[in-house]
């Protein structure tokens, strides 16, 4: 990996460029820094989520996800480098299967609401989707392995599922969207 920062206020970005891990410089508004920034933002939101009460197994999973996102950010910062392993995607697939198995089937769309932890998990989910879009955009201009895209896609799904787990932690439930169309259909069916 490239040089590690020994000071933070380097002033080298004052010209609108940023340094990558391979010591090249690119514009701060190019696709690679966008993807790196979105992954970094996601990791920061996960840190905030981890401030909330949650089951220990969920906490341990999210801490590992933070480490994997740091690997992903490192991979994005060095073109052609691989840090995120395929096993990380498999871990998310296994977690999805595990947590989904204990949840009831969805009857309707749910709102990003409920407990503070669940709402924060939804924020993380939406940032993960944005990070995924940024990685897809980068992949249209430069070679990017599939694992980063797959990881972010699975992670956003997992965060949705975990929001449901977190809403049930103290006997709560999902916060369902009140669809006017479905309400009219139910009313029509009873008439």
UniProtKB/TrEMBL annotation:
Gene Ontology BP annotations: cobalamin biosynthetic process
Report the residue ranges that make up the Cobalamin adenosyltransferase-like domain in this protein.
Answer: 8-165
InterPro entries of this UniProt entry? CblAdoTrfase-like, CblAdoTrfase-like_sf, PduO-typ
Q: Which UniProt keywords apply?
A: ATP-binding, Cobalamin biosynthesis, Nucleotide-binding, Transferase
Query: What does the record give as EC number?
Result: 2.5.1.-
The entry sums up its family as follows: Belongs to the Cob(I)alamin adenosyltransferase family.
Q: Where is the composition biased (Polar residues)?
A: 1-10
Secretion signal, residue range per the UniProt entry = none
Q: How does it assemble?
A: Homotrimer.
Put simply, this protein is called Cobalamin adenosyltransferase
Principal EC category: transferase
One Gene Ontology term of the molecular function aspect: corrinoid adenosyltransferase activity
